[in-house]
Specification:
With 476 residues, the protein is mainly alpha-helical. It has helices spanning 21-25, 38-44, 59-75, 81-94, 98-115, 120-123, 125-137, 141-157, 169-181, 187-200, 205-222, 225-241, 246-255, 260-273, 277-287, 292-303, 309-323, 328-348, 353-364, 368-381, 387-403, 408-420, 426-445, 449-471. Helix 3 packs antiparallel against helix 4, helix 5 (98-115) packs antiparallel against helix 7 and helix 10 (187-200) runs antiparallel to helix 11.
């Protein structure tokens, strides 16, 4: 696998041979210092997806975001279509499809002309910025200058102090929506964008929605009680002004899970009225704590009409939870239902390592040898998998080696591989710590003190890795 962190090999050019005494008596002249790239300097000053420094972990992250973007484009409000299309173009460019990205940017421009005719010049700056960056990567410098010129003209008309950037609310709003589309882990950053936009213009439906959604997203990653109360207040206000905003209703239902009656009532409204499979999926998670059977029956009905892979994946997860309370006679049928759900998820998303790992466990209910074959097949996918997927694999592989094959040292090696993978993923780190403590206990009972010490060293390394990740985080 190519290490993208390594510097590529540099191609060395030979100096042309010269004849004459001067060539023999003095060393060749030093090459001139590299000249600055004026276009690149201008591009770095733009406000667009190429300069917003999104946290994109790997190719799998790009593919997942493209999938969720497709749902936003199909079911989201028309006012955000251009923003999502411009983001989609950026992600397609990252995947190497620059020509497709340019076609998508044309769609984004048309959407702006249709949905924002009165503020087109202010709204189009992000799209033009993406155009300029893609043409720069394609070395079409004439078009780069064309779009830089158009941006410069708009910024001049806006009396911006920077010829290539304008601190206007439309830009902050587009950045906020883009951050949310890239993942709720960006909730706090998105919230700041909408707050800044609200400082620059009077409140609007779009900005209030963005602030409410980003506050909810921030809470899902901080679990801060103050943020929760703020999110609840904003979402309730949004629903009063937009009674058919089902995204707001499902977010509020998640905040109000302790008020089960109201949460279920909100989820019922979403199931009865929304066509967005992501919102429908979220509604079943509201049912799940008190009625797993209702969550399953609702999700089964929804999955009949949608091929969204996460619907089938969640259905498989619910069946696996049902196994914990099933009788011996019921287990075989539940296992078959779960297997079928994960298979359908894989048909819709063949790259899903998580679905394969769940299938492996289910196959292990019947044939441990087949479970091992699935793991060996997943190993071949690991080089192109996300770091979090790799960690999830080694955790489950180590558990299989320890409990199904009794291979303690091999399990330790799997956990060591999990620890060595970069990235601070709290859920996986917590699971790894639990598995290591379990393994240390096994070595202790067997009197294998040297191997127990190795596990304790790994636990210390894991703690230091987690502490280092926390120290390295940017201040909020």
């Amino acid at each position: 696998m190519v290490n993208v962190l390594c510097e590529p090999h540099k191609v060395r050019c030979r100096l042309p041979l010269t004849f004459g005494s001067s060539a023999l008596s003095s060393p060749p002249p030093s090459p001139p210092p590299p000249t600055a790239d004026p276009s690149k300097e201008k591009l770095r000053r733009l406000q667009c997806h190429f300069t917003w420094d999104f946290e994109i972990k790997d190719k799998v992250d790009v593919r997942h975001t493209l999938g969720t973007l497709a749902l936003r484009l199909e079911h989201g409000p028309s006012r955000n279509q251009a923003t999502y299309l411009a983001l989609k173009a950026y992600l397609c460019h990252l995947e190497g499809s620059s020509r497709e990205a340019l076609a998508i940017l044309r769609e984004a421009k048309e959407a702006l002309q249709r949905d924002h005719p009165g503020t087109f010049s202010r709204q189009v700056l992000v799209t033009y910025g993406n155009y300029a960056w893609i043409y720069y990567q394609l070395t079409d410098y004439n078009r780069v200058e064309l779009y830089l010129g158009q941006i410069r003209e708009i910024c001049r008309d806006l009396s911006s102090p920077d010829p290539y950037s304008a601190p206007i609310p439309e830009i902050y709003a587009q950045k906020g929506w883009s951050l949310l589309a890239m993942g709720f882990r960006n909730g706090e950053l998105a919230k700041r964008c909408f707050q800044k936009a609200l400082e620059l213009q009077e409140s609007s439906e779009e900005l209030q929605e963005g602030l409410a959604f980003s506050t909810f997203a921030s809470w899902t990653h901080s679990w801060d009680e103050k943020v929760k109360k703020e999110g609840q207040r904003l979402l309730e206000g949004l629903i009063r002004s937009q009674p058919e905003n089902y995204e707001a209703k499902i977010y509020l239902a998640n905040i109000l899970k302790e008020d089960h009656g109201r949460a279920v009532s909100l989820a019922d409204e979403v199931v009865q009225n929304s066509l967005n499979p992501e919102l429908l999926r979220a509604a079943t998670k509201v049912y799940r704590p008190c009625s797993l059977f209702r969550a399953i029956s609702t999700l089964k009905t929804i999955a009949l009409h949608h091929d969204h892979h996460l619907l089938h994946y969640d259905l498989g997860i619910y069946y696996m939870e049902l196994l914990d309370q099933a009788s011996r006679e019921e287990r075989a049928q539940i296992v078959e239902d779960a297997i079928e759900s994960f298979r359908r998820s894989l048909v819709a998303n063949p790259q899903s390592i998580y679905a394969r790992l769940k299938l492996a466990k289910l196959y292990g209910e019947r044939t441990p040898r087949y479970e091992e074959e699935v793991y060996l097949g997943v190993m071949e996918q690991l080089p192109t998998a996300s770091r979090r997927c790799q960690q999830a694999f080694y955790l489950q592989w180590g558990e299989f080696l320890l409990h199904k094959k009794g291979q303690r040292l091999e399990a330790l090696r799997a956990y060591q591989a999990c620890c060595d993978i970069p990235g601070d993923h709290p859920m996986e780190q917590k699971r790894l710590e639990q598995r290591l403590r379990e393994l240390a206990g096994v070595f202790q009972r067997e009197g294998e003190t040297e191997h127990e010490g190795a596990v304790c060293s790994l636990l210390r390394a894991l703690a230091e890795k987690h502490l280092g990740g926390r120290v390295g985080e940017a201040p909020s």
